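Repro:
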Amino acid sequence: MCVDRGMYVRVCLSVALIVFTDGRYIGSVLDRNGLRPSRFYVSKSNFMYMASEVGVANVACDEVIQKGRLKPGRLLLVDTQHGIFVKDEVIKEQIATMRPVASWIKQEVIFTSLTLDRR
């Protein structure tokens, strides 16, 4: 809940698990506080079940091949075309290397040495 009282705004302490898709990829991201639990199962029949609590879906124990939980600040992405999980580190590496920021800084920023007159 966010409270706005003139110039004073209290920080929002709500929890967030965001799930998204574009038809090919299905993903989710958990807020950095990790207050909302997010658990998932992967079954032998290649289905993924994700919910905030365990036991939401009736999946037999012998049918489950992977169990896990989404950790704070992490992404979970499934490529439905290839039937694979894309790891959090891989996603973040791809995003970080999309733009050559380091070379832009070298080309565009002029560094000068400043001397301060301290009298």
